[in-house]
Amino acid sequence: MTKAVVKYGLIGIILFFILVVVWIVYAMYAPLGTYRCGTFFSYNPASQDCCMEKVYEGTTWEECGGTCYNEKTHDCCNGMTYEGNTWHECNGMCYDFQKESCCGDTVYTGTNWKACGSSCYDEKTDDCCAGTIYQGNSWKNCNGTCYDIQTQDCCKGTAYNGTSWRECGGSCYNEKTDDCCAGMIYQGNSWNDCNGMCYNLKIQDCCNGTVYSGTKWEVCSGTCYNSRNQTCCNNSTLIKATGICS
Questions:
Q1: Cβ contacts of residue 116 below 8 Å, gap of 6+?
Q2: Could you report the per-residue pLDDT of 171-222, keeping only the tens digit for each?
Q3: pTM score, two decimals?
Q4: 64, 79 in Cβ contact below 8 A?
Q5: Is-contact 49 60, C-beta < 8 A?
Q6: What phi and psi, each to the nearest 5 degrees, are found at residue 58?
Q7: Predicted confidence (pLDDT) per residue in 90-103, tens digit
Q8: How far is the C-alpha of 207 from the C-alpha of 224, rounded, in Å?
Q9: 185 - beta bridge partners?
Q10: Which letter does DSSP use for residue 163 in this model?
Q11: Residues 223, 229, 230, CA angle at the centre, nearest 5°?
């Protein structure tokens, strides 16, 4: 029994020393410019990689969950390899960001999901305004108030019903029903500016920068006249009823 133990012990020692010698010789005489990979392999780092004691062609091999993968063609997520370079982690789940979204630690189908307040929404179909989700893509923020631009307007921080509200001076007006002239709001849509003065073109006229009562005012040789009862003849104005132009 003792002789057998000694015999096999010597054999083990001899084999150990043989392996050591082989390893030393390998390390000493491995090709120049190569690195050791495992116990018995070498690789050229310029064109090869070492992963889990195995040599692979290419320089982009990494370990993922006990296997090796090429990071040029695959991704590693939660210890699993996935084909392609479009995989990310979302609260422990793996998703393809070209087809899916991660929002609120949840994976959604589609790439347009965003956070809004404590919820998530698809920005293709909905809007987020002031932390609240609204159906449709026509919602904007007006000084903290959310309004639908299809049916409302924002003027000086206030939301109004209708889409024709504009600023005039320091106030807002509806251009469908009112006019803005020289920073003042006038009722109706018949107001114009005449050299800084506002006039109602339904009952007044502007001629040479002056406002006149009535309409149909025109210029005759630099002078304004009312063409309703006057005429311009040879650069002079004549009363139609009594004057004769020759």
A1: 128, 131, 132, 133
A2: 999 999 999 999 999 999 999 999 999 999 999 999 999 999 999 999 999 9
A3: 0.70
A4: yes
A5: yes
A6: 100, 160
A7: 999 999 999 999 99
A8: 6
A9: 180
A10: S
A11: 35
Cβ-based burial of 4 (10 A; exposed 0-12, middle 13-18, buried ≥19): exposed
- Residue 156: which pLDDT band, with cuts at 50, 70 and 90? very high
Q: Look at residue 76 in the predicted model and tell me its pLDDT.
A: 98
CA 16 and chain centroid, separation: 66
Beta-carbon contacts of 92 under 8 Å, excluding residues fewer than 6 positions away, are: 78
Q: Which of 234, 55, 19, 155 is nearest to 243 (CA)?
A: 234
DSSP 17: H
DSSP 29-79: HSPTT-EEETTTEEE-TTTEEEETTEEEESS-EEEETTEEEETTTEEEETT
230/236 Cα distance (integer angstroms): 10
Nearest-angstrom CA–CA distance, 79 and 82: 10
Please state, as a whole number, how many other Cβ atoms lie within 10 Å of the Cβ of residue 150.
10
Question: Which residue has 């210029």 as its token pair?
Answer: 219
The β-bridge partners of 106 are 103
Is residue 80 within 8 A of residue 94, CB to CB? The reply is yes
Q: Is the dihedral of CA 164, 167, 169, 170 positive or negative?
A: positive
Q: Map residue 155 onto helix, strand or coil.
A: strand
Residue 28 — very low, low, confident or very high, per pLDDT cuts 50/70/90?
A: low
Q: What is the pLDDT of residues 125-146, one digit of tens each?
A: 999 999 999 999 999 999 999 9
**One-letter amino acid identity for 219?**
V
